[in-house]
Design brief:
four-stranded antiparallel beta sheet; 1 helix
């Protein structure tokens, strides 16, 4: 899956909820083998990070539903 690390006081967290679907654009360097492009995605979970470099932040996990041509 893919995820976004978000500061715990980010307004973004007030705009989303688990199960919500959204359109996202995945970016990667041209030489990368990672997927890129436009997708419909669903928020799978929002988890507090308890340790590591991003301790105290939230991980917003996304489940990709389908590739789309554009927004």
């Amino acid at each position: 899956g893919i995820g976004v690390i978000v500061k715990p006081d980010s307004k973004f967290l007030n705009l989303i909820e688990i199960g919500q679907e959204m359109k996202v654009e995945l970016l990667a360097p041209l030489e990368s083998r990672h997927i890129q492009g436009f997708y419909r995605a669903r928020i799978a979970h929002i988890t507090a990070l308890a340790e590591g470099r991003f301790k105290g932040h939230k991980l917003v996990a996304l489940e990709l539903i389908s590739r789309i041509s554009r927004y």
